[in-house]
Every structure is written in structure tokens, then in C-alpha cells.
Design goal:
Layout (H helix, E strand, L loop, with lengths): L9 H17 L5 H12 L15 H7 L4 H4 L3 H8 L6 H5 L6 H9 L3 E3 L8 H10 L5 E3 L8 H5 L10 E3 L7 H15 L6 E3 L13 H10 L5 E3 L8 H7 L7 E3 L7 H11 L5 E3 L5 H12 L2 H4 L6 E3 L8 H10 L5 E3 L9 E3 L1 H9 L3 E3 L1 E3 L1
Parallel strand pairs: 1-2, 2-3, 3-4, 4-5, 5-6, 6-7, 7-8, 8-9, 9-11, 10-12
Helix pairs in contact: 2-5, 5-7, 10-11, 11-12, 12-13, 13-14
């Protein structure tokens, strides 16, 4: 334009740069389908022929372009689930979109694996049945502190228990008969039960006798993959029930606090489950008597087998002493945390400076003890 060297004036250079920025901003995806396309490219899927590259520009075009959802119908359920619901877009927010059809909603519901219904005081059997129909791929359910949750509620969960891994029933009205019936129906319908975590702890005197030996026998029979079992304050468990629990070969976490476990049963549990246990709760039990029995018979061989034990809870054990804590630390090589709150004859464990230094040398965290 007559400028020296054939260069453009500065004003025109600025205009072209502005136009380039505006064109770049227009290319950003703003619709659900374009977002799904960019999500697919991140995942490595080739879906150029399935999803539009650019979003519609005007509101009228959005209405006319809506039948293009047929292109999404060509995607499999697995790819569709990864596009919309596998961490890239929030499941519940995506389900609210009006552009989604019944199939996409079904895929979205199948991607919901965890439900937390703690402290839900009003929960009917019909509502639990609807949950079972909606969510077929549940992996974790928490009904703790739901006092109305009982036998009929648990039976209604059978339909969604095919892939269930974690079930928390702490503080519910579930008893022996309800649990036995539920596990039997799951076994008859789906084969081997997939449960890995089961919490049946009681929280009141009214429910502390709901779980007993029949439930323990059913657990050992139908739940061979169980890794975590919590039976806190289950007073109806006897030696027969604890023998059944000792047959769980995959168990790594066990809570038998406030159960009234006898010396014989405690010794059997530690002998058979000790080598695999990582977390053990023996609060308010006869652990000190087991210590004396083990020391006299086999020189602490029971505790020396617990090489994987990392967390030990010994709360409210009146006969517990600092010497006992020191011996456990010596035997359990992997121990990282020990809780002795409200234990000992004076309500606290008093460690000497030498004992405390040994714990510090191994980086063991002790709770509820003092140093003299």
C-alpha cells in the first residue's frame, strides 16, 4: 500500500490480530455435544464422524440441530459413559440436561456407584425398592444411623447387590434373620457375594443384641471375600460365632469391641487371623487375660504372628499396663498406631521415658498415654 518495504501500516496489523483473537474465541465449545467431542479426543477415541466439530451459533440452529443426537446413539454404552459421566462432567448435573434421552439417562444412572444415606430417619421400603431399580451398579451403600432400616428394607436391596462391595448398617434394626435371608437371596441370585466391607455395629442397648451367632455363620458361608468386618457392641455373639468369623481368610480389619468375647475365642481369632490382620479393635475386651495366657503357653507367639498389624485399639481396658503395651510394640513389627484411651487402673497408661523413647524410635503414634 505504498509503505516502504511493502509492510502494512500498524493500524491494519492491530486489526488483523483482533480478528484472529475473535475467531479463536468463537471456536471454544459451548454445547454438550462439542464438550463430549473434546472429552473423547482426550480419551483417544476417534469420533469425528459421530459428533459435530463446532457448536451451533444461534438459538434457532440449536433447535434445528437437536435431531443430531442420533449420532450419539451410534456410540456404545461404555464410550457414552466415559464421554459424559466418567469424571469429566458431573453425573447429577448432566442428568438434568434436557437434551439427554432415556438411554443417556440410563447410562448416567449406571455410572453412580456410591450412595450415602446416613441419619435418614424417614426411609420407607418403597423408596429402597426404587433405589434398587434405578441404580443397578451400586458398589457402596451407607445406611448407618437409620433406625427404621430393618428386614424388609434389606431384602429390597437384593436387586442392586450384584456388584456391591461395601455395606454399612451401623445403628440399624437389622437382626440375625434379616441378614441371613439377605445373604442367602444374594447367593441364590448372583452366586458368590462380592462384599468386602460389612459394618453391623450397634449404638444402643435396644439394638446391641440384634446380631448373634447365626449372622456370623452366614457371613462366613456367603462372604468369602470379606476384608473388613465391624461387630462393635454385638452382645449376642458367643464362642460359636467367633469360630465362624475366624474362617474368613481374606479378613484384614476386625472390630470386636464391647462384644464380651471370651479368652478362648480371642485367642482363636488372634491365632488364625493374626498373620493377615492390619487393623484390630479389641476395646473393652479381655485382652489382658489373653496376654497372660499367651505368655505362659507360647511366649507371646500369638502377637508375634501379627506382622502386618498397623493399627491397634485397646480403649477401656482396665487391666492394661505399660509393660503390656511395650511387649505388643516389640512383637508387632509393622505397628504404626495404638490407642489406649481410658485404659489402665487409673484411666490412663503411664509410660517411662525409656518406653516412650522406644515408641518414638519406631515412629509409633500412641493415643491416651502419658510419660512419667
Amino acid at each position: 500500500n505504498g509503505s516502504p518495504g511493502g509492510e502494512c501500516p500498524p493500524s491494519k496489523v492491530r486489526r488483523t490480530s483482533k480478528r484472529k483473537c475473535e475467531s479463536k474465541n468463537k471456536e471454544k465449545p459451548t454445547s454438550v455435544f462439542s464438550t463430549a467431542y473434546f472429552t473423547c479426543t482426550k480419551l483417544g477415541f476417534c469420533v469425528n464422524e459421530f459428533l459435530p466439530l463446532t457448536p451451533p451459533n444461534q438459538e434457532e440452529q440449536r433447535v434445528t440441530k437437536r435431531p443430531n443426537s442420533f449420532s450419539i446413539e451410534m456410540l456404545s454404552d461404555d464410550i457414552l459413559g466415559k464421554c459424559f459421566f466418567n469424571g469429566y462432567l458431573d453425573t447429577f448435573e448432566t442428568l438434568k440436561l434436557t437434551t439427554l434421552n432415556k438411554r443417556t439417562r440410563r447410562v448416567g444412572l449406571s455410572q453412580i456407584h456410591h450412595l450415602d444415606l446416613r441419619k435418614c430417619k424417614i426411609l420407607t421400603v418403597e423408596q429402597v425398592s426404587k433405589l434398587s431399580l434405578l441404580y443397578q451398579n451400586m458398589k457402596s451403600l451407607d445406611f448407618s444411623y437409620c433406625p427404621q432400616f430393618g428386614r424388609n428394607h434389606l431384602t429390597a436391596l437384593v436387586d442392586t447387590s450384584k456388584n456391591l462391595r461395601h455395606l454399612v448398617l451401623k445403628g440399624t434394626a437389622v437382626n440375625d434373620h434379616a441378614l441371613v435371608e439377605y445373604l442367602r437371596q444374594v447367593h441364590e441370585r448372583f452366586g458368590e457375594c462380592q462384599l468386602e466391607t460389612l459394618d453391623l455395629s450397634a449404638i444402643s442397648k435396644e439394638t446391641c443384641r440384634n446380631i448373634g451367632d447365626k449372622a456370623a455363620e452366614a457371613i462366613s458361608e456367603y462372604c468369602p471375600k470379606l476384608k473388613c468386618l465391624k461387630l462393635g457392641w454385638c452382645k449376642n455373639l458367643t464362642d460359636k460365632g467367633f469360630r465362624s468369623i475366624s474362617k474368613l481368610k481374606c479378613l484384614t480389619e476386625l472390630d470386636v469391641s464391647l462384644t464380651g468375647i471370651t479368652v478362648e475365642s480371642c485367642y482363636i481369632l488372634l491365632e488364625k487371623l493374626g498373620p493377615k490382620l492390619e487393623v484390630l479393635d479389641l476395646s473393652a475386651t479381655c485382652i489382658f487375660q489373653v496376654f497372660e495366657d499367651s505368655l505362659e503357653k507360647s511366649g507371646w507367639i500369638t502377637f508375634s504372628k501379627m506382622q502386618k498389624l498397623s493399627t491397634l485399639k485397646l480403649q477401656f481396658c482396665e487391666q492394661l499396663s505399660a509393660a503390656f503395651v511395650e511387649h505388643i510394640v516389640q512383637c508387632a513389627a509393622s505397628l504404626k498406631s495404638i490407642d489406649v484411651k481410658h485404659s489402665g487402673q487409673e484411666g490412663t497408661i503411664r509410660l517411662t521415658k525409656k518406653q516412650a523413647s522406644k515408641l518414638c524410635a519406631r515412629n509409633i503414634q500412641i493415643t491416651g498415654a502419658t510419660t512419667c
